[in-house]
Amino acid sequence: MNEVSAYVAEGEQDAEATVRPKRLAEFIAQHRVRDQLDLLLRGAMGRGTPPDHILLSGPPGLGKTTLANIVAAELGSGIRVTSGPAIERSGDLAAILTSLATGDVLFIDEIHRIAKPAEELLYSAMEDFRVDVVVGKGPGATAIPLDVEPFTLVGATTRSGLLTGPMRDRFGFVAHLDFYAAADLEQLLHRSARILGVPITDEGAVEIAGRSRGTPRIANRLLRRVRDYAEVRADGMVTLATAREALKVYDVDALGLDRLDRAVLRALVDSFKGGPVGLSTLAVAVGEQPDTVEEVCEPFLVRAGLLARTPRGRVATDAAWQHLGRALPAGRISAPNAPADLFASDQRFP
Ligand SMILES: Nc1ncnc2c1ncn2[C@@H]1O[C@H](COP(=O)(O)OP(=O)(O)OP(=O)(O)O)[C@@H](O)[C@H]1O
Predict the structure, then answer these.
(1) 203 in any annotated domain
(2) Is 116 a catalytic residue?
(3) Is residue 113 domain-shared with residue 38, that is, in the same domain?
(4) 109 has catalytic annotation
(5) Residue 22 covered by a domain
(6) What beta strand segments (E) does the chain contain?
(7) Is residue 16 domain-resident?
(8) 273 catalytic per annotation
(9) Catalytic: which of 159, 213, 217, 303?
(10) Which own/partner contact pairs does 282-290 have at CB distance under 8 Å and 24+ positions apart?
(11) Among the options 152, 157, 158, 215, which is catalytic?
């Protein structure tokens, strides 16, 4: 996994936890989602019932796990955390569900990857707070109904388009987290720097924010890398100069693209003449899993107008050729920058 991707590397989780906002009021930006959640939670607390189930979607590192923890903290409830791939058998899920206390929050990350039998069990738990646990096999199998205490499911997904209709319909509140504006990331960096005791100038924060791909987790990670550099090679202060020098060492370019992002663009432009090319072929060309290319690199490349996802495959836009410093080949049909709605549609393209 490359240095600055939006996934958390082992050993960095403590640093992440230190700066993670604990309450809604500390959660920066995403005002619409924050307001809506605030209403949902206060309404439910006023009535003394658990709020509707909540689905959070969006690219990695934008705050889904943080919001799930905030929901529990605001409700004053306990939280159980698991993930779709971790629930292999419906029995695993039944054990979790039946051990929940009244009002608990159950957070399922990557909920689109939950196994089918477990998903079906979840339907009745979400709707009727009841699960049928099947004991035995074949004609002798019996279903034992078990009660589940009223709870709130918070599901997180990077691919809401992959959720089945029945699953999506059972969430009373669905929120899509979008990439953060640079100004919001500056605010976030100042907050994190304060908590970590890192002196930072406004220009330093602007520089890091501009290269953070609209993603809080990446902003926090770059801050830690620039802090290392500032402490080892300068006087410890994060400034414009230390940020620039450090980010050069870590191979993060002016748009915030890292090695994998650039490898994807280079493969598209140099090996496939700008595309269209299918996702799996592109992933093989850069030596990564298709899921990583699709979920980690592409959302931002599309957002930055460098790559378009079309029904015929991935295409490098004119801006991608320019960003790589390549001349557009003569006779090439120009691919204008990707329209934002292609990204928002969140569909799986070939
Ligand atoms: N709105 C925000 N305000 C302040 N910090 C934030 C905000 N959103 C995210 N962060 C920070 O970014 C880090 C990553 O957030 P989080 O783990 O919630 O992302 P995620 O969307 O759940 O990603 P993944 O799906 O990969 O787990 C957190 O440690 C938190 O400190």
Answers:
(1) yes
(2) no
(3) yes
(4) yes
(5) no
(6) 54-57, 79-83, 105-109, 130-135, 142-147, 152-157, 173-176, 307-310, 313-316
(7) no
(8) no
(9) 217
(10) 282/313, 282/314, 286/260, 288/260
(11) 158
CATH number, residue 243: 1.10.8.60
Minimum-distance ligand 1 atom for the alpha carbon of 8? 26
Residue 227, domain extent = 182-249
Q: Is the peptide bond before 290 cis (omega within 30 degrees of 0)?
A: no
The residue among 145, 176, 207 that closes a domain is: 176
Per the structure block, which two tokens stand in for 43?
A: 């309404």
How many other C-beta atoms can be found within 10 angstroms of the C-beta atom of residue 103?
20
Q: Which of 176, 197, 214 is the last residue of a domain?
A: 176
Nearest CA to ligand 1 atom 16: 63
Interface predicted TM-score (ipTM) of this complex, two decimals:
0.96
Alpha carbons 288 and 149: distance in angstroms, whole number? 42
Tell me, in angstroms, the distance from the centre of ligand 1 to residue 222's CA: 14
Report pTM. Answer: 0.87
Within a domain: 86: yes
Coil, strand or helix at 292: helix
Mutation pick for ligand 1 pocket among 1, 12, 20 (CB with most ligand atoms within 8 Å)? 20
Instruction: Single out the catalytic residue among 104, 109, 184, 258.
Output: 109
Q: Same domain for 157 and 201?
A: no
* Beta carbon of 57 within 6 Å of any ligand 1 atom: no
Domain count along the chain: 3
pLDDT digits (tens, 9 = 90+) for 120-170: 999 999 999 999 888 888 888 888 899 999 999 999 999 888 899 999 999
Strands 130-135 and 142-147: antiparallel
Model pLDDT for residues 197-238, shown as the tens digit of each residue: 999 999 999 999 999 999 999 999 999 999 999 999 999 999
239 is catalytic: no
Which amino acid appears at position 330 of this protein? A
Residues 47 and 171 in one domain: yes
Ligand 1 pocket test, candidate residues 70, 195, 217, most atoms within 8 A of CB: 217
Residue positions forming the annotated binding site: 20, 61, 64-66, 127-129, 170, 180, 217, 309, 314
Which residue is closest in CA terms to ligand 1's atom 25? 60
C-beta 21 within 6 A of ligand 1: yes
Read off φ and ψ for residue 311, nearest 5 degrees. Answer: -60, -20
248 a catalytic residue: no
